[in-house]
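Moderator note: this is an archived Q&A kept for reference. The question asked for a predicted structure of one protein chain; the sequence and the answer are reproduced below.
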Amino acid sequence: MLIVSVVVLVDAFGGAGMIWLPLLAAGPALAATTNGPCGVLCVGLLAAVLGATLGAQDGVPASELAAVLSALVAVTLASGLASALRGRRERVLAAVRSVAEAAQHALLKPVPETVGPFRVAVRYSAAAAEARIGGDLYALIPTPYGVRMIVGDVRGKGLTAVGTAALVLGIFREAAYDEPDLLAVVGRIERSLARNLASDDDFVTAVVAGYPREGHLEVVNCGHAPPLLVRASGSVVAVDPTHPAPPLGLRALSGEVPSLQVLPFADGDQLLLYTDGVTEARDHGREFYPLAEGLERHVCDEPARTLTALHDELLGHVGGRLHDDAALLLLRKPARSEAVGAVSRYPAARSSALM
């Protein structure tokens, strides 16, 4: 409408005749980018009426005016068709995104803010924003043997990677409840992947961790990036595996088995599990994102706030869009004084409400 109005004003005050009239076709052409077919046809009809009126006022020969109006009608009809096709594609995309969101909620179930003795936060970003889902995986569940968690990254992309991630998570959720030993959980995942992976080149890097008893954290690293341990003092330490093991699905090729690391995990300590989409994110100068330094800058007593700050800084580092899936899972063991304070505040609030 703005373009049509500008052409009319220029022609009215300049009296240029045929020089400006063909530009009226830009109105319906651009209307197709934002409007439906009816809106395009209305803009085209308005442009045709104004073009005929201006042409008659400027004394444009009938043959030339007819050619301009014919071209305007053709552009309007083509733009209306393009608008209809665009609307259809948008509806299909909305349906696909809806299905992807449902699949993501089924595969990557939301993690509550509190799981067992931990405060927890998760941030996940798929590289394909339209799909909302990728090959990174995470889960954190309470079991009879303590809280157990997994963060992993499936080699490859697309539906095959999503299927493998679903397989790993399904086995983990079942084995975590059944197996007292964390290494046995990893062994069940390994055996299932050995039977079900589509190709010998496929594999899954993962960190499986558990909190079996007070003050003890178990970690099994299968070719994955080392977790970051944040002590209550604020220092950040990478938990490198003592005996590096191959990714899940490749044990038969190497013959190496993963080892179990037991770490002290006191009140106020935090553990960050992540995928390589975070640490391999590059800025315009091809510099990797320094996750450990970022965590040390932004760590606080609220895991959700820490991950929000980290995620925002990560997006700023890459210029707004990640080129690989990225998952972050942070858990914190609150100090007992915090838990006691929260309980003691509740009766006071209840008493004030009753008063």
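Archived answer notes: The chain has a mean pLDDT of 82.
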